[in-house]
Design brief:
The structure holds 2 protein chains of 2 kinds. Chain A is α/β, with parallel strands linked by helices. Helix content of chain A is about 40%, strand content about 20%. Chain A has 4 domains: about 190 residues, Pyruvate-ferredoxin oxidoreductase, PFOR, domain III (Pyruvate-ferredoxin Oxidoreductase, domain 3, 3-Layer(aba) Sandwich); about 180 residues, Thiamin diphosphate (ThDP)-binding fold, Pyr/PP domains (Rossmann fold, 3-Layer(aba) Sandwich); about 60 residues, no CATH class; about 110 residues, Rossmann fold (3-Layer(aba) Sandwich), CATH 3.40.50. In chain A, strand 12, helix 10 and strand 13 form a beta-alpha-beta unit. The model of chain A has no long low-confidence stretch (mean pLDDT about 95). Chain B is of the alpha/beta class. In chain B, helix 1 crosses helix 7. Chain B has an 8-stranded mixed sheet, with helices on both faces. In chain B, strand 1, helix 2 and strand 2 form a beta-alpha-beta unit. Chain B contains 11 helices and 8 strands. Helices cover about 35% and strands about 15% of the residues of chain B. The interface between A and B is large, with 73 and 56 residues. Strand 17 of chain A pairs parallel with strand 2 of chain B.
């Protein structure tokens, strides 16, 4: 049987190589020209705790982590019990025979650590697993050897020994899988992309995008699942005029990047929901005093401490309206690892362009997912700089109803950046006419962020889908399947949520129904769309996990089909 | 604002100590201009919320840059300005409520980092702008609008706090001596690291301590104010603790540790050790 993709779930305890196995498989596959995407969930503890990671390998670019588990690799008995029922009919379970034994007819045991040790390389356990998986889908041996060679040839003296032991480990895995008699099918040969690629996580893509866009100042506080951006910046935002630092709270983070933005540096922080709550007053100040800065919200689940290591799209209201008073926060929500890069560039550009705060919303599922993406061609990614004041003293920084040049400390044009309502020089005022002017000035600047581009397909349909953020992938797969079934449904998508591209809103306003699948209870984006006059209805899920394509297809069909009958009558 | 701005309607009460602090700050910035040629626009004054924070709007003469943000957050804003642009001279002006109560959490980390800024704290022992509530430095037992039966909390000694938290330059002064205060602020600006100039700046409306500070010979009240003797060794933390234990309002430099690098010095050392990579090189790390 020819297979175009397959999904492997690795489940066990933290520290058992669950994540590294999935990433190893993803790397091995992309190395030879397949596409790969991993989906990880973590326990909220350092050692132990149940965890699982899924890797999907495909001959085409991948949009979601995959519904159907073809192979479960169970590192312990609890993992088997938890995940066994998700294995599809005809799927296979590999269990770690060093940990436990069992008699499930779909399973065979693999003593991964013992086999690894027998090669003289204790760290080759992952390779035993990858070898077994490769055998199940009959991936040619040369692919795997190419991968091992590429991964371990680093110019060390013992490179050849390491490579030999890893290949031996894979062969042992392959041998045991062959002896088990199980076969899933023949994975179709890959079509290696003819463009350059990167293999990275969403958080890494955000960090790279922000760096390309010119972020020079980063302050952050550790919080799952945003911490890796702080760690990345501390290691890579290095050089004259650059600064990255772990500060003592999210309040320090937002106010420190505010000082840097005011002083003229492109500045950023990254946090998760609890941090957004703590930053809300600061975000209002940046809006009020017109200070460029970017806050990345890598969403996790639930209010308060919630679900720190699960995924959800429930911070939209908090990000769009974070602060007291009249504030409408610009929000960009990328929908894939690749969009994380471009979304970060846009976020920094927006903050400079309109001289104010911008929120970039990511999600745990994108932050920790590893995916191959086309390498960005930086010559085609434009970077914007703020309009600065170049004149003499006596400048009125907040004059008029539109954006105006911003003076930078150390230059003529001194003013007071003020979080109190202020006059043109930045001095505090209470005059009604001034509050009117400044309020209108602040809102008028949002016009500068109106973009033209968005995704639109089958635009003639009266019922359309409009996902946001990380749900884009599974919703897109559902859309493709629905269209293949002949369902007349349209597709709209933009990473620009506030402000939306004006033409996109115009189009949505003409639709009979806009269906918004989103990972929260209240249907937050649907509710915001309704407030803009769009007839929007949400499909919600609040499990802490991403959507399954099959669930979406069923739910969308439930909504669309009765409507179709009505129109027929 | 350099000239009277008719739209700006905030006024300090006549006799407010903050007038003297403002003058001292103006003197100190002019001194610095004369001493090292630093233009006034190279100074950034980060102000807290309260009567004291309004100082940033009331400065006369050539104007520095100002930042008047949200309550309690002067230090991290100042950190952002300083670490983004280490060549700027960054000042904080705040009151005891802003700096020691809502903003208290920021003192320890910035002291640990030795952030190279100068903070001038106007301590009047009360929340003036909200009309007379108790602050961390209000005397225990005092009846204020928010402590109708007397304050039950022990009052905080800010100088002892700064010493304990490891602030590397600590001076204490009085708003009624603008020239003396200007000299302390100037010394703080010259110090490479975090400098605190803690100023008793009386509130004539809600907590008038002028007589207490200056004394009244006729009524037999001895002044609380005393000059730190010349023989005091400011490099000794123990000597500084001993001074604080004597109570009253010492005027002068209590403590000065010049052995520590400021934060920008630490970061420069890191830059010298770490490798800077271009964006293309960083992306190369993700190729396969």
């Amino acid at each position: 049987m020819q297979m175009n993709d397959f999904v492997v779930r690795f489940a066990g305890e933290g520290g058992q190589g669950v994540v590294t196995s999935a990433e190893g498989l993803a790397q091995a596959s992309t190395q030879v020209g397949y596409h790969a995407l991993t989906y990880a969930t973590f326990p909220s503890q350092i050692m132990g705790g149940p965890t699982w990671t899924q890797a999907r390998i495909c001959i085409e670019p991948i949009l979601s982590s995959g519904d159907q588990v073809d192979v479960l690799v169970a590192f312990n008995e609890e993992a088997y019990e938890t995940h066994a029922e998700e294995v599809r009919d005809g799927g296979v379970i590999i269990y770690n025979a060093d940990e436990f034994t069992m008699t499930d007819p779909r399973s065979f045991g693999l003593a991964v650590d013992t086999l690894a040790r027998s090669t003289g390389n204790n760290r080759a356990a992952n390779m035993v697993v990858i070898g077994a998986l490769a055998q199940l889908v009959r991936m040619p041996q040369t692919y795997l050897e190419d991968f091992v060679e590429a991964r371990f040839r680093r110019g060390r003296e013992n490179d050849s020994a390491i490579i030999a032991s890893n290949i031996e480990a894979m062969n042992l895995g392959r041998q045991h899988a062959a002896e088990s008699g199980f076969v899933l099918g023949d994975l179709a040969p890959p079509t290696p992309p003819d463009y350059k690629q990167l293999m990275l996580k969403g958080n890494e893509a955000i960090a790279l995008g922000a760096t390309h866009a010119g972020v020079k100042f980063y302050a952050g506080y550790p919080i799952s699942p945003a911490t890796t951006i702080l760690l990345w910046m501390e290691r890579n935002l290095i050089g004259e005029g650059k600064f990255a630092y772990q500060v003592s709270s999210e309040i320090e983070a937002i106010t420190a990047i505010m000082g840097a933005g005011y002083a003229g540096k492109k500045s950023m922080t990254a946090t998760a929901g609890p941090g957004v709550s703590l930053m809300s007053e600061g975000l209002g100040l940046a809006w009020m005093a017109e200070i460029p800065l970017v806050v990345v919200d890598v969403q996790r689940g639930g209010p308060a401490t919630g679900l720190p290591t699960k995924t959800e799209q429930s911070d939209l209201m908090a990000c769009m309206y974070p602060a007291h008073g009249d504030v409408s926060m610009p929000v960009i929500a990328p929908g894939s690892v690749e969009e994380c890069f471009y979304g970060a560039v846009h976020a920094v550009n927006w903050s400079e362009r309109y001289q104010g705060p911008v929120i970039l919303m990511s999600e745990m599922s994108m932050a920790e997912r590893v995916q191959n993406i086309p390498r960005p061609d930086l010559t085609k990614v434009s970077v914007e700089e703020r309009l600065t004041y170049e004149g003499s003293n006596g400048y009125h920084r907040y004059s008029g109803y539109e954006l105006s040049p911003m003076p930078l400390p150390g230059n003529p044009g001194a003013y007071v950046a003020n979080g109190s309502e202020h006059d043109e020089m930045g001095d505090t005022t209470h005059l009604p006419s001034r509050h009117i002017q400044m309020t209108e000035r602040r809102f008028s600047k949002l016009k500068l962020l109106q973009e033209d581009k968005y995704e639109a397909e089958n635009t003639a349909a009266s019922i359309v889908l409009m996902p946001w953020g990380g749900s884009k992938g599974p919703v897109r797969e559902a859309y493709d399947e629905l269209r293949a079934q002949g369902v007349d449904v349209g597709w709209y998508y933009s990473m620009f949520l506030n402000p939306m591209p004006p033409k996109l809103l115009e189009e949505l306003l003409t639709k009979e129904l806009v269906i918004v699948p989103e990972l929260n209870y209240q249907g937050q984006w649907a509710s915001i769309l309704r407030s803009r006059g769009v007839k929007a209805q949400a499909i919600t899920q609040y499990t802490g996990l991403p959507f399954k394509v099959s669930d979406l297809v069923a739910e969308i069909n439930d909504i669309v089909s009765p409507a179709k009958e009505v129109t027929r009558v | 604002m350099s000239k009277k701005n008719p739209e700006y309607d905030f006024k300090w009460c006549p006799g407010c100590g903050d007038f003297g602090v403002r003058r001292a700050l103006e003197f100190a910035m002019i001194n610095r201009l004369e001493e090292v040629g630093e233009p006034i626009e190279n100074n950034v004054v980060v102000a807290g919320i309260g009567c004291s924070g309004n100082l940033v709007h009331l400065l006369e003469g050539e104007q520095p840059y100002g930042f008047h943000g949200i309550h309690g957050r002067t230090l991290p804003v100042a950190m952002g300005v300083k670490m983004a642009r280490p060549e700027l001279n960054v000042l904080v002006v705040a009151g005891d409520g802003d700096f020691l109560s809502i903003g208290g959490e920021h003192i320890a980390p910035q002291a640990a980092r030795n952030l190279n800024i100068t903070a001038v704290i106007m301590d009047n022992g009360v929340y003036g702008l909200t009309k007379g509530q108790s602050s961390p430095t209000t005397e225990m037992g005092a009846v204020t609008s928010s402590t109708p039966f007397g304050k039950v909390e022990q009052d905080l000694d800010p100088l002892e706090l700064y010493l304990t938290l490891g602030v590397s330059f600590i001076a204490s002064g009085f708003s009624g001596q603008p020239r003396v205060l200007a000299e302390l602020i100037s010394q703080g600006m010259r110090h490479q690291g975090m400098s605190m100039i803690h100023v008793q700046s009386p509130c004539v409306t809600y907590n008038d301590t002028y007589q207490l500070i200056k004394g009244n010979a006729k009524e037999g009240i001895a002044p609380a104010l005393w000059d730190i003797p010349e023989e005091h060794d400011p490099s000794s933390k123990q000597a500084a603790y001993n001074l604080v234990q004597q109570g009253g309002l010492p005027v002068g430099v209590l403590f000065k540790d010049e052995t520590r690098l400021p934060l920008e010095g630490q970061m420069a050392n890191i830059r010298a050790r770490a490798r800077e990579r271009s964006i293309e090189q960083l992306m190369d790390g993700y190729t396969f």
